[in-house]
Amino acid sequence: MLFTSYEFLFFVLATCVLYYVIPKKWQWMLLLAASYVFYFLAGASYLPYIFVTTVSTYLIARKITSLQAVVDAYIKEHKKELSREERKEYKAKEKKKQWRLLLLCLFINIGILAVLKYTNFAIANVNSMLTTFGSTAKLDFVDFVLPMGISFYTFQSMGYLIDVYRGKYEAEKNPFRFALFVSFFPQLVQGPISRFDDLAKTLYEEHKFNSATVASGLQRILWGYFKKMVIADRMLVAVNTLIKGPEEYQGAFVFAGMLFYALELYADFTGGIDITIGIAETLGIKVTENFHRPYFSKNIKEYWNRWHMTMGSWFTDYIFYPISVCQPMLKLSKFSRKHFGEIIGKRIPVYLSSFVVWFTTGIWHGASWNFIVWGLGNFVVIMISQELEPLYRMFHKKFPKADKALWFKIFRVGRTILLMSSLRMFDCYRDVPLTFKMFGTMFTTWNWNVLWNGQLLELGLEVKDYIILFLGMMLVFTVSMLQRSGSVRGKIRTLAFPVRVIIWYGLFLVVLLFGAYGVGYDASQFIYNQF
Amino acid sequence: MNEIIEILSDLHPDIDFETAKNLVDNKILDSFDIVSLIAEINDNFDVAISAEEITPENFNSAESIWALVERLMED
Q1: Distance of alpha carbon A15 from alpha carbon A377, whole angstroms
Q2: Which long-range contacts (CB under 8 A, 24 or more apart) does A279-282 make?
Q3: I need a surface site. Which of A51, A125, A356, A382 has the fewest CB within 10 A?
């Protein structure tokens, strides 16, 4: 059931109506039932996987909490008898038991994800190596289903488990409530990857019907559909033509395709998240924001703090920090400082952990070398930018007013967009060598006249489509600018009633009239669904 | 406390860490800074700061970082 289908709209409407009609204490149960119906309709074969993740995480988290309770009670009871060392030793011994349980659960769940998502990738690599060494033997590919949203719900559940292990909060007692946290249908498809302490309270509490909240949620949904159907799905037509004809579309076409894809991905993913957050808002539930105007970032590091923020913070909290501050890493850092000097020694924890994070980020996005190279490309750019930091400082010292100059702001934003768009080319082309080749054609094939000689009109889009895209992007840009001083919906609420009606019904009509439907268009799956 | 301020000032010479608050919330310290800071603290005070201790509350000011170090030294 696509977010852009009528079935989905009917499903959401029916869920919302029932949600506010039934007794409030049953609301979360309705959401659980709706989430499982949604998932069942997406594919009955997916259900066992989410069920295993839910049950294993629930049981192991409960066990960890109960073990910790025993430790706390014992320490409290024997506080006076035990020395500080004895207390420490006892705690460490008991924590090891919890650690083993944590590892078991991570092994089960990351194992499921890895087997389903990466087995064929591994087989393809083995086959390729066999061919390289002259063997004719080939391993057969396996036919696994990849459950919808598995990367998202697995990460969300594992984040919860690690937090319980770290003692950030106790495990949820009610298995059905926990099942809702894992499967909450609006965010099951493409995130955000919520944290239990952020989502749980608002998910389980009773919500009275509030027309202002529902209206605000519907407005956000409408804005999401605008970005998805008017911009992303329209842009997709040109992007598909460009990337499926690498022999024909080179040079300036690659440049156009690179920017088109960056805009398409932005409109697609942020639009999807707007729909997710909007649906949750109509139900009175607050879901964590996932974007903060990423294309306004002044550098790539800032971009990653503003794009898919819940994924970024997940990787930082559960991979980057544990690796970079673990004892072996600190020892390695000390050793390197002693033998290779301060400069190298200081960088070791950050560089090694970042490498692991970006490799994982890449492979999380998809089982292919394209995504791995994309992830590592981000790593390289961030590290270069980190190394150039003293140079930037010198520049700012020499030109203290540059920071506030408009030209410099535009330069930085433009640089970030170009860098990110170049790296995103790995999403588009079928393999890594082809991506590099196509990137190279931007500098070797001088055909920039195709940008204005009418050839862009042969990519499946007409003049009116380009006008709609241009005006649509201008609207998105204007809204982003206005958001800098607060919620745009909040600002609209202060306007006179007729103006508000014109704005929202106008947007509704725009989606209805200019949404990419019908012949030539395919209301496509969201790009991030496949991750 | 002074040692903490010195380490922080090495990372960001332009910030007055004696008065600066909300270092993490206001993104003055990023994840790279925090890792460098933890390595320095590990060296200078011989305390291990684990990943679960890395919260904005613990790293939002020189004072809160010092409080964390003191707590870990007592543990």
Answers
A1: 43
A2: A279/A12, A279/A186, A279/A217, A279/A221, A280/A184, A280/A186, A280/A187, A280/A217, A281/A213, A281/A214, A281/A216, A281/A217, A281/A220, A282/A12, A282/A16, A282/A213, A282/A214, A282/A217, A282/A218, A282/A221
A3: A125
**The whole model's pTM is what?**
0.89
**Claim to verify: residue A328 and residue A244 sit in the same structural domain:** no
What residue type is assigned to position A124 of the chain? A
Fold of B2-11+21-74: 1.10.1200
Domain shared by A282 and A303, yes or no = no
**Are A277 and A289 in contact, with CB atoms under 8 Å apart?**
yes
Cα of B14 to nearest chain A Cα, Å = 10
Model ipTM?
Answer: 0.89
Q: Do B36 and A386 touch (CB under 8 A)?
A: no
| pLDDT, tens digit (0-9, with 9 covering 90-100), for A204-237 | 999 999 999 999 999 999 999 999 999 999 999 9
Residues A195 and A310 in one domain: no
Count of Cβ atoms closer than 10 Å to residue A43 Cβ: 13
pLDDT for B61-71, tens place per residue? Answer: 999 999 999 99
Residue in chain A closest to B74 (alpha carbons) equals A84
